[in-house]
Amino acid sequence: MSRELFKFKGGVHPPEHKAESNTRPVHAAPLPKKLVIPLRQHIGNPAKPVVEVGDRVLKGQLIGAADGYISAAVHASSSGIVSAIGPAVVPHVSGLPDECITLSTDGLDEWIVHAPLDYRAMEPSDLRMRLRDLGIAGLGGAVFPSAVKLDPGATHSCPTLILNGGECEPWITCDDVLMRTRADDILQGVAVMRHLLGSTEILIGIEDNKPEAIAAMQAAAQKMDYAIEVVAVPAIYPGGGAKQLIKTLTGREVPSGKLSTDIGIQVFNVGTAYALARAVHHGEPLISRLVTVTGHVLRPQNMEVLIGTPMHTLITLAGDRDGTTGVLMGGPMMGMPMPDLDVPVVKATNCILVKSRDLFPPLPAALPCIRCTRCADACPAELQPQELFRFAKTGDFGRAQEYHLFDCIECGCCSYVCPSHIPLVDFYRYAKSEIWAREKEKRAADLARERHEFRQFRLEREKKEKAEKLAAKAQAKRAELAAAPATEGPAQTDADAKKALIAAALARAQAKKAEVAPKNVDHLPPEKQREIEEIEARRAKIRELARQPLETDEKKS
Amino acid sequence: MITAILVMVAIAVVTGLVLGWSAIRFKVEGNPLAEKIDAILPQTQCGQCGFPGCRPYAEAIAKGEADINQCPPGGEEGVKKLAELLGVEPKPLDETHGTPKPKSVAFIDEQTCIGCTLCIQACPVDAISGAAKQMHTIIAVECTGCELCLPPCPVDCITMVPIAEDLPHWKWKHPVVMLKQVSGEARA
Amino acid sequence: MASPFIIDRSSVTQVMAWVLAALLPGIAVYVWLFGPGILVTLSLATVTALAAEAVMLKARGYPAKPFLMDLSAIVTAWLLALSLPSLAPWWLIVTGTLFAIVVAKHLYGGLGQNIFNPAMVGYAVLIVSFPVQMTQWAGPLELTATPLTLAQSASVIFGGDVPKATLDAVTMATPLDALRTGLLQQHTVDEIMTQSIFGHYGGIGFEWLAGAFLLGGLVLWALRIISWQVPLAFLAGIWLAAGFLHFFDAGRFGAPWFHLFAPSVMLGAFFIATDPVSGATTPRGKLIFGFGAGLLTIIIRTWGGYPDGVAFAILLMNLCVPLIDQYTQPRVYGETKKTRAPPA
Ligand code: SF4
Ligand code: SF4
Ligand code: SF4
Ligand code: SF4
User: Fold this and answer.
1) Which of A355-359, C185-189, C195-199 has the lowest mean pLDDT?
2) How many degrees, rounded to 5, is the angle at CA C246 between CA C243 and CA C247?
3) Which residues, at least 6 apart from A161, have a Cβ–Cβ distance to it below 8 Å?
4) Does residue B159 share a domain with residue B126?
5) Would you place residue C133 in the very low, low, confident or very high pLDDT band (cuts 50, 70, 90)?
6) Which of residues 426-465 of A touch C (CB under 8 A)?
């Protein structure tokens, strides 16, 4: 029963380099002394810390709670003490720090109490909340919170569930190895997905360069009580891209700007299915994953790694070598260079690829585009990369968008084939982030305009009200005057009144500050006392300075 | 001869009717040019252009009473956009109105603030919250960085803090590659 | 610099080298059938082009090495040389090449920026400015009594003292010239075709030359260096237009096969119209581009002031490229009617 497969346009055949790492057995990486767990590991709102520095946490304990619907929780990957909460370098090209929770592990690796979920008995929405709180997010690279993807919505149903075992990127083998060794668990996870989505057709797409994985999955599928079709798809990069896999398996295309659920299809990575199985059947949050450590290392292999483990410990474990020219997170086609090797493994880390001059020779200098359209022939999104490049380079972002810039999946095929060696994808990333920034700016400007206009309107109204009140008052006064002759002095102007008020406030504030000495400053060590005094002196001076203009003003008037 | 004239007249009449109809049908309310200009201006509402806010400046440009290069927060890029909209040559920013600064937000030292409300009255977008005699705070996301609250503060407790780049705001830079000056050097 | 970190082995140099290699069969046939004079023309054009390229790069502040290495200047030089009459005087070759490189290529912004095909610009300038010199074609060896040696060719090209009789004995009108002159003299196509210069399809020798270019072109297509759309549409345009005219009045219009195998058509179809820089980029656009160029070629050949129209046809179509591209943007993955942006 072989299924009719479809071909997506474009794609390339980079050297696979899978054999380096997929033959060695999987070991768990040893527990590091320090775990750095970023709060933003997924798409959506970052998690909110729920522990404090100094707290002792257990393995699997919630340390960052999901914030909102599109979010996922983060958990302690091992037991230990929270040693810091704050910015630390995260695995991101920019090298910018982000909020992280740092744990000093105690080596006990003591689990928190956890129990399997009876998912069939649970309300689907409760189950999804549980999964969100167990930190389940897509492990294929995009790290989209799985709970959101497992919601078929009120009107949609999701008849087709596709499990993505494509793994088309060169060098990476973690999904391959996972399927070989844990096929049964993966299918347990699929059962949960099927339950939540109500899917009737379950397809597992695996590239035909992974025969062992296909065999293992097929064997496991036999044992399940529902129909699963394991389909070997042609190995072509980026055949494991969600949209490409959908096209290959079903012949359908996800409409531009829509989600695959809109056409009744949902795609999950095999690693996500495995994490889901652990969560449901063991109650374990997502605190570890398989990571391929490969490239310029002595023993390329896959490891079971705790989230938060610094990357350099893994490279050391795999045997670091001289002549390293950099480290990528991910594969060579879409991976990102790491700013620092101290950065932790996160949920998105599928591969740590160590570069060397031999394996990854520096790219030659770029020449101008000769419009050969090889990029267009290779583009799986069927775009015209040469035009996008032209628009991005000249800053014509409007045209770039018209030419479907946002349908670009940043797969890198275009750069790969470009005879002029233009870093095309860099231009698209630049254009996209520029467009997003401008949109944000535009929104801010709109908000400012609105608020300004509202303020104008308010001032106008207040003025009118004041005028009315004054008129009424004047009327009353006139009436009063008519009754009794005036004895008051010259009427104060508004401004004078205000100044007096401010002066009074200043005086009061000063008095209050002098009066109310804070309670916790009794019995202080002398240097603290001195510090406080200095600050007080500074404050006094500022007050002094602040008063002067007012007083001089008053004198003048 | 007669037919030719008749045909011409007929064409003229028809075109005239179509034009007239579309003028009514697609009429835009208000002063669309000022509106469009205002959409380009950064809405910082700082008044550096010499007008009390962006809208009045936009109206002045639309009326031809002000030049397009008087808005420092908009920068050269803003001038370029305005020039494009109006179909004129872009020109360098008029320095007499100030120079562009990195985007900042105001920050009130809450220890020093005496709660005089003067800054609230100055803020063009109501981005300061606080009541009389109480400590005041800037609502950072709403602050446009116009600096109008700095001068009125009697205790000088407001400072401008440049917005530091963080992960959500990080942008990919324009790739620096190719051609001139690269002189055949390989890129890493 | 971010991903991807690996690239295919291809490079501009490689692309251009294949184009040059694919021209070799044509050049070999040229030498075999028309004598070695073309080698002089090719060398002269190559040297001129490289020198001009180097000077222009320097003047524009670009590094010379990567751009000279890309071989694009040599491709331009060869295409121009192969379009010129084989006994064209040296200054004609130099002027044409200089114009192609300096004006048509670099003044438009250099590699990848030129709107017009540089070789064709060079050719057009020459044929407009020096129509007489542009007819000094060596006849096929089969028809000339005493073929020129390499040295003699060189001396003709460099303006050496060659007796006029010798020269007249070797130069000949090309088949297209012959057809045109014949038609102007009110002969019918059939009468003209009886002249010795005409062979089975095109002119004697010229048919073989066309065949060799076709072969080189097919190699380029097999290597995916050129797409099938442009050559096919170009040839189809010529065949259909010529066939249409021939069908209505076989006496006044040449046969479609004759037009296809006239010199310059195969070269134009596979090597010149396929120039990526100045050609259309979308699949449908390439078809339109090629077909338009074919149609225009026949129109210019039939009603224009010059015997051959390939160069002008391609230049005219070059002009239309931005428009063609804009209106033939292909559908992208997942595009629906709603997301399709109107061409602006
Ligand atoms: S592959 Fe490179 S040179 Fe060719 S059209 Fe695309 S961007 Fe231009
Ligand atoms: S990176 Fe974008 S433009 Fe380039 S091939 Fe991939 S989808 Fe197409
Ligand atoms: S200078 Fe300030 S007030 Fe004037 S237009 Fe620019 S942002 Fe608006
Ligand atoms: S003007 Fe200064 S002192 Fe007055 S309320 Fe504002 S910040 Fe406080």
Assistant:
1) C195-199
2) 85
3) A190, A193, A194, A197, A199, A201, A202, A203, A265, A266, A268
4) yes
5) confident
6) 426, 429
Question: Is residue B23 in some structural domain?
Answer: no
Supply the pLDDT for residue B181.
41
Residue B177 lies in a domain: no
Q: Where are the domains of chain A?
A: 130-283, 363-483
Cα C296 to Cα C311: distance, rounded to the nearest angstrom: 10
Could you say which of B97, B117, B149 is where a domain stops?
A: B97
Chain C residue with minimum CA distance to B182: C63
Ligand with the closest atom to the CA of A506: 4
Does residue B160 lie in a domain region?
Answer: yes
- Best mutation target among A99, A343, A449, A541 (most B Cβ atoms within 10 Å) is A449
B187, part of any domain: no
| Residue of chain B with shortest Cα separation from C66 | B184
CA–CA min distance A22, chain C (Å)? 21
Residue B184: pLDDT band (50, 70, 90) is very low
Residues B92 and B144 in one domain: no
Residue A532 has pLDDT above 70, yes or no: no
Chains that touch C (3 or more CB pairs under 8 A): A, B
Please, what's the b/e burial string for B72-91 (b: 16 or more CB within 10 A of its CB; e: otherwise)? bbbeeebbbbbeeebeeebe
Question: Tokens standing for A528?
Answer: 């603290």
Provide the chain C residues 58-77 that lie in CB contact (below 8 A) with chain B: 61-63, 65-66
Which of B57, B125, B158, B181 would you mutate first to test chain A, the one with the most A CBs within 10 A? B125
Under DSSP, is residue C266 helix (H, G, I), strand (E, B) or coil? helix
Interface test with B, best of C1, C68, C69 (most B CBs within 10 A): C1
Q: How far is the CA of C266 from the centre of ligand 4 (A)?
A: 82
DSSP code at position B175? P
Q: What letters, b where the CB count within 10 A reaches 16 and e where it falls short, cover C70-105?
A: bbbbbbbbbbbbbbbbbbbbbebbbbbbbbbbbbbb
Mean pLDDT over C336-342 rounds to 60
Residue B67 and residue B120 in one domain? no
What pLDDT, in 10s, does the model give residues C283-315? 999 999 999 999 999 998 888 877 778 899 999
- Check whether C341 has a pLDDT greater than 60: no
Quick one: closest CA in C to A246, which residue? C334
CB contact under 8 A, B177 and A434: no
Q: How far is CA C156 from the centre of its chain?
A: 23
CB C63 to CB B188 under 8 A? no
Residue nearest atom 3 of ligand 4, based on CA coordinates: B113
Residue whose Cα lies nearest atom 6 of ligand 4: it is B119
CATH dotted code for A363-483:
1.10.1060
Domain that holds residue B70: 32-97
CATH no. for residue B52?
A: 1.10.15.40
| CATH code of the domain occupying A130-283 | 3.40.50.11540
Q: How far is A238 from chain C (nearest CA, A)?
A: 13
Give Cα C162 to chain centroid, integer Å: 29
Do B115 and B92 fall within a single domain? no
Say yes or no: B73 and B116 in one domain: no
Residue nearest to atom 8 of ligand 2 (CA): A379
Contact by Cβ (8 Å): A196, A152:
yes
What is Dmax (Cα atoms) for chain C?
A: 73
In this predicted structure, what is the pLDDT of residue B11? Answer: 67
Tens of pLDDT along B107-144? 888 888 888 888 888 888 888 887 777 778 888 888 88
User: How far does the CA of residue B107 sit from the closest CA of chain A (Å)?
Assistant: 17
Q: Which of A370, A382, A416 sits opposite C7 (nearest CB)?
A: A416
As a whole number of angstroms, the distance between CA C32 and CA C35 comes to 6
DSSP-derived secondary structure letter, A25: P
Tell me, what's the ipTM? 0.86
Domain count for chain B: 2
